[in-house]
Amino acid sequence: MDQAQPISTNPPPPASHALTFHARRGPFAGLLMTNALLTILTLGIYRFWAKTRIRRFFWHNVSFLDDPLEYTGTGGELFVGFLIVVAVLFPLGLIYSAIGALVPPDHPELRAALEIAYYIVLFALLQIGFYRMWRYRMSRTRWRGVRFGLDGSTWAYLKLSAGWSVLTALSLGAAYPWMQIDLWRYQIRHTRLGDTSFRFDGNARELVSAWAPTFIIAIAIAATGGLFVYHFGWDGAGISGGMPDDEKHLLAGLVATIAGLALLSTVTFFYYRIRQTRLQISGIRFGDARFASAMPFGRLLLYALGCFVLAGGVVLAAFLAATAFGSIDQFWDMGFQMNMESGSLGALIATIVVVFLIFPLIWALIFKFEVIRQTVITTAIANPHELEHAAQTADRGPRTGEGLADALDIGGF
Fold first, then answer.
1. Higher pLDDT, 406 or 106
2. pTM, whole model, 2 decimals?
3. I need a labelling partner for 29 at 20 to 30 A (CA). Which of 107, 135, 170, 212 fits?
């Protein structure tokens, strides 16, 4: 008779910081400026190559067990994928435009049904685009010559996302953490390195305490908004200069309350997202390898606030500089004569430039860079050498890039 094997009482090996981050903001700032200039000169076409250069920059500067990751995607793949999807979305946009022109005004129920169908299709495209985006990025990422990949079914992911979205809506948002973690579980379970798949052991119950403040604040905002509608109507038609003082005080109180709650909910949701990211990383397994995350909340919140303060300072400086030039009587624009204060025009142009050009650069250089850095340096892995056992597979992944993700502007870098 075989003797029973003794149960091991040895503690699991401590997690090690096998991931290292080498990138510096100086070279990244130069890359962002070059990308912005070329994107403007090419009327936006270069953005596909710009995105590829940024990914290669970060992938090359993240090392695992002293060997860097490698990104093999190309801007051409992203551009071709975008063109293919635009060929599909363009007719869909024409159909939506035709709804207003062709549906008779005396058939509002038909118009509503068609618009609902349109948004359902758009929702499905968003989910499909997100999953295919992840598949493309994994297929273009290698480590020591071994390629990552994503299996699974796009349609299965779509059905899972649709089911959870309906449940989240019916629960007024209470099921949101379960939706996020279940979709992440499906995604990670079908992600592989070579011929070996990852798995995920996290549970959304760990996020309840982090989600509760945002959920409660959202209910409070809805209740305050309902009180506003009850007193002043949907369009605010009850607001007038001749309101009694008590109505003015009520209006000021409701507006201040909604603004304060909205600001507070931004902070609480940011905290929830940090907790969610920690759980998403800490639940990842690869054989006997176990991941753990200690992503900081306070540090990233300060970086986010710093971006807005810096951008606000740039707007203020541009406004003061623009208004310092005085005014002109008139200028010509597209053949129409217009009277305008040059200071007001300059301030408007400066604000547009800051919002659509400078702020995205500040946000990427300060906040996004720090998010990637903290994700890497605060992730520890127990038994990291388990990942060395993965063998290469022949599947190269999709031939074209993230068409839906690019067309619908999802996914960031």
1. 106
2. 0.84
3. 135
